[in-house]
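hi support,

uploading two proteins for the ticket. first:
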Amino acid sequence: MTYSGRVTVGGPADVHELKDLMITKIAVGPMDNNAYLLRCRATDEQLLIDAANDADTLLGTIGDDGLASVVTTHRHPDHWQALAAVVEATGARTYAGREDAEGIPVPTDVLVDDGDVIRVGQVELTARHLVGHTPGSIVLIYDDPHGHPHVFTGDCLFPGGVGNTHNDPKAFASLMHDVETKIFDVLPDETWVYPGHGNDTTLGAERPHLPEWRARGW
């Protein structure tokens, strides 16, 4: 089956099979959050991005092989509703952006700064700190040595625009700056984007619209 990135709450997960990494995408909760389970194919170690909701569904997806770590992309409650239950069941180590950790009610084991590397088995993910949607939002970049990059953007970047900055011009300017300089300026058009809600996209599909986003202010 070809990966599409289209998932619905209550429906099946979709799996993106890369040479070194398996990416399972599943939708959970009343706000249609995406959770992503990453599995190193060499070691079978697993990492979850956003234990957003519905712990039973997430634990069923994780299965019997355990969970090494959970990364929370930002402090907004719809992205951590199942975090406590998942950590209790798996003993996973928790990661979050340094500036957002205090807003997450589950203790953060590892505070993440811009440029930090988070590992899942033999796979390395690079965290980038993007300011605007929240003070401490992070995105994770997997630069696949066998293909194009993959970026997990939380609520910082979606098909059609950046994340909600609540009509704050300063926050919008900050988020646009960080999205452009830390994602669009350094990654190729083929880069696959996995957002915190909704369908996937690519940087190439979104790049022509950057001036339009900046002009409209959201």
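and the second one:
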Amino acid sequence: MATLLHIDSSVFPGGASASRAVTETFRKTWEEQHPQSTVIYRDLSADPVPHITAHAHTAGFAAPDAHTPEQAAAFAQRIKLIEELEQADAVLIGAPMYNYTIPSTLKAWLDNVILFGRTSGENPSAKGTPVTVVASRGGSYAPGTPKEPYEYVQNYLTATLAGMLALDLDFIVPELTMAPHIPAMTELVPLFETSRERAFQEATAKAKALAERLAA
């Protein structure tokens, strides 16, 4: 029975969030394909994980029997998040762009699960696990656009998810999501609608393909 780790980080609820709408489509398709599957869900906006602390950080470089009580408590929280990642057969992450990068809550999750010698290093414990990231953004930061140099979401997540954790990374990128709300972007609404529809189609197709891949 397959396990999906689903993480949302948008501060906006439900349909008000472009990333949540697409991850919901992916998850529903996944559950249709895997009706007996397990879904581990974390809403990092509603229930944020602790930001990394000195105790949690230093505990990662010390033997468990040498941990102070403070280190042991902080490290236990990290281990819970790490084990959720390790037991997942697939990972789904909603990563909207805020001020050119990911939400701080998602950064906190990454800081907790990246543990050298376990999830990163020579033999990362979740290596090869497929991860689909819905990287929504209000404008466009695609290659060739004026704001391309300010794209720090895909670049950063490629470095951490694919580089450090060695996950099998794939992106879905709904863009121009602010076009319907900003008068100066009105002429871009058709491009937004095309991007949104493509994102939903990709979410459905990728979820089905992944379900088939894991069932094989």
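thanks. also noticed: Strands lie at 3-8, 38-43, 90-94, 130-134, 168-172.
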